[in-house]
């Protein structure tokens, strides 16, 4: 029965994708506006459904943080609606001719952006993702099969119904936005192998979920997730700037993938930077773990081999004093997850080498790693941050929800 | 032992990838030139090794076509070397700043092309792929783990040794080009799951090989392959042009993925087009299979449901007479594999609708489907034709062997 639901909904998504792919920007935008309006209009219904999820979550003993993630208020529903209106204002990523050129035989070839087709989104107990993902996929001309976490199922069902109805009324092909009511792993397992109907899978959530998808999917996957990010303070750094950036990268929001997990400090400045910095970090409640050289300067716990490789996602920081730029880059190469890496320096050639030689989705000079984010980068929206290399790497906006086709204008050309 | 070989070579590829990623164009080009020279210099050795493969192939009763594919001659070795020299002349796809923009907070963000990293190429008994794939991967800054078919193992071993040594001598990190000596399926199976060391897999070969890779890989795959391509002759077509294009698309090289497999003809022109066309196609040795309406016009076998969905890869053509443009596009939607589709028409709005509404890697107006090819499109080279939507679709040149990173120049910016 689970399989039946997944297959039949995925099939409908595929059917709807054909027409949605070349729908006008006007219709897509009016649908997004209607979805936003309908969310506001149905605030009461959504909150009633949400209260069932909250009640069940409390009975199951979910953590306060998880309950907070689940909770919807009129304000949060308004935020979701506002998010859709932001997407309305973004340029349509479909149908852009990226390049057009002439071949010697007179053929004119153009490379045009087109929708990916059907996107499967597998996510956890965040009802806002339902709206967010549906809106972005729709604007990029894709249909979407949503599979949210069981904890949010009551909320998700009402939200999906509300936005899907609004979309259909506005002229989007029926079936373009669909939510699976089956929330168990079996539903995910069916999605993972449904190459016939799904073009791409995007898992959004914890490392466990993402690994399950990566390890078992035959449908192409965009992996998102893990960030073991470093800030390296070079010998030529402005130490005041370094301190601000370190505190921001660690403390502004420690639970996210672009937060710093390990601080690397050039030996020449460790003595002047670490004492004051560590006091401040402790004031922010950060637990510090250092290498032996760090511990000779400040009183912190010993960092283990395991700490260098960990994404703490918490107020914990590992600190290592390094010989030079090369040792810092070696450490990042060995332990980094190619997400976001920063150097603080005023040395021109060191900045150039770091930007060139460090392989990561985002490489910074003199700025906090916390900026790796589609909104911050100016994309206006973000469906996730790719941590793989295929398709794209780093924050993914609307453009990254498209692929290309080639169009060729001829006058009877044949191949010799 | 097989696993040990694959893992240790993949690990070396990964280690070599770090330095290769930011090597200068100059060094990469001098390595490619040295590889080409070394192939010519070692012609005799390569031919001796190749004769072992040919002998074994004949003993195993390989078909004449397969033996011909395997066979190396001084001329064919020169062609491989020439291919490398063509790659030298192509622009370096690495390090291109595709875009750079300023954020309101003063951060300057750039999107830069960087190598994918380590590419695994899984292919069949074509020794030229060894040179071709290694050269393209190298120019795009990637290391490559090659796994060729067992039938070509003697040739491949010598070729890989020759080009890898030339590359290393020219300054490419050791281990950047590696060939697996294990040619059984077990070696492939290890590659498919080696996410730790391999960034991307590209299978090149028959449908069976490609499906094995797609169905079992956890490493991201670029699927290449199947093309069930159509030519649709519209009511407003120039029938002389249509005839030339059809003959070219079917007969010029029937065994390739961009050859036409089904001809769709508007009912208004079927009577005037088909009799003469079918005679000509028969002269080319094409076996014709038609729908009932076709059979009322010309004497051909009945096309079965199965024929519409088949990639014949042979001198066989299915023919269907359709009501109008919409029926033609419906047929293509139902049976096509989204590879290459063509309309022959002089009707402006029909040409626009076909280009927009037909979803395929390449959509043509008034030209043969046979042009879907990286060399023909002007990319100068081709590693394969992607038939999936993730990453890219259609012919893949050097640019498609790269991904991106974001580089960010700051002056101490932190996130609010």
Task: Summarize the structure in words.
The structure is a homodimer of 416-residue chains. The mean pLDDT of chain A is 96. The longest helix of chain A is centred in the N-terminal third of the chain and has 19 residues, at 2-20. Chain A is globular and about 65 Å long. In chain A, strands 10-9-11-8-7-12-13 form a 7-stranded parallel beta sheet. Chain A has a 4-stranded parallel beta sheet with strand order 5-4-3-6, with helices on both faces. The first copy, chain A, has a 3-stranded antiparallel beta sheet with strand order 1-2-16, with no helix packed on it. In chain A, 53% of the residues are buried. The first copy, chain A, starts with a helix and ends with a strand. Chain A has helices at residues 2-20, 25-41, 43-59, 64-70, 74-89, 127-139, 153-169, 185-192, 207-216, 239-251, 267-283, 292-297, 305-308, 325-335, 348-357, and strands at residues 97-102, 108-115, 118-123, 143-147, 177-179, 200-204, 229-233, 260-266, 287-290, 301-302, 316-322, 340-344, 362-367, 384-386, 394-396, 402-413. Chain A has 416 residues and is α/β, with parallel strands linked by helices. The first copy, chain A, folds into 2 domains: 2-225 and 391-409, Aldehyde Dehydrogenase, Chain A, domain 1; 229-371, Aldehyde Dehydrogenase, Chain A, domain 2. Chains A and B meet through helix 9, helix 10, helix 15, strand 13 and strand 16 of A and helix 9, helix 10, helix 15, strand 13 and strand 16 of B. Strand 16 of chain A pairs parallel with strand 13 of chain B, so a sheet runs across the interface.
């Amino acid at each position: 029965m689970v399989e039946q639901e997944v297959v039949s909904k995925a099939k409908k998504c595929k059917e709807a994708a054909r027409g949605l792919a070349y729908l006008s920007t006007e219709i897509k935008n009016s649908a997004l506006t209607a979805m936003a309006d309908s969310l506001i209009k149905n605030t009461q219904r959504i909150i009633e459904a949400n209260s069932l999820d909250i009640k069940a979550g409390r009975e199951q003993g979910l953590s306060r943080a998880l309950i907070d993630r689940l909770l919807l208020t009129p304000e949060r529903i308004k935020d979701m609606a506002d998010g859709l209106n932001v997407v309305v204002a973004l340029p349509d990523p479909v149908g852009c001719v990226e390049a057009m050129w002439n071949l010697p035989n007179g053929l004119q070839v153009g490379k045009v952006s087109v929708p990916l087709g059907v996107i499967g989104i597998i996510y956890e107990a965040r009802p806002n993702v339902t709206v967010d993902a549906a809106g972005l996929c729709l604007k990029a001309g894709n249909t979407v099969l949503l599979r949210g976490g069981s904890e949010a199922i009551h909320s998700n069902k009402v939200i999906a119904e509300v936005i899907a109805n609004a979309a259909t009324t506005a002229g989007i092909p029926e079936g373009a936005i669909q939510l699976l009511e089956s929330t168990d792993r079996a539903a995910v397992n069916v999605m993972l192998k449904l190459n016939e109907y799904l073009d791409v899978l995007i898992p959004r959530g914890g490392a466990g979920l993402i690994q399950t998808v990566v390890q078992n999917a035959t449908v192409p996957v965009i992996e998102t997730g893990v960030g073991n990010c470093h800030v390296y303070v070079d010998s030529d750094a402005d130490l005041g700037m370094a301190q601000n950036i370190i505190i921001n990268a660690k403390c502004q929001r420690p639970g996210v993938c672009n937060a710093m997990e390990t601080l690397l400090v050039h030996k020449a400045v460790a003595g002047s930077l670490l004492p004051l910095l560590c006091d401040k970090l402790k004031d922010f409640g950060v637990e510090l773990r250092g290498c032996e050289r760090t511990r000779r300067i400040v009183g912190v716990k010993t960092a283990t081999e395991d700490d260098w490789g960990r994404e703490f996602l918490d107020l914990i920081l590992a600190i290592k004093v390094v010989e030079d730029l090369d040792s810092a880059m070696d450490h990042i190469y060995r332990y980094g997850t190619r997400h976001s890496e920063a150097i603080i320096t005023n040395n021109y050639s060191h900045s150039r080498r770091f930007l060139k030689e460090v392989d990561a989705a985002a490489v910074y000079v003199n700025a906090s790693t916390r900026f790796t984010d589609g909104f911050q980068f100016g994309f206006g929206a973000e469906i996730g941050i790719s941590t793989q290399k295929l398709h794209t790497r780093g924050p993914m906006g609307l453009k990254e929800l498209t692929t290309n086709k080639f169009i060729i204008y001829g006058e009877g050309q044949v191949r010799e």
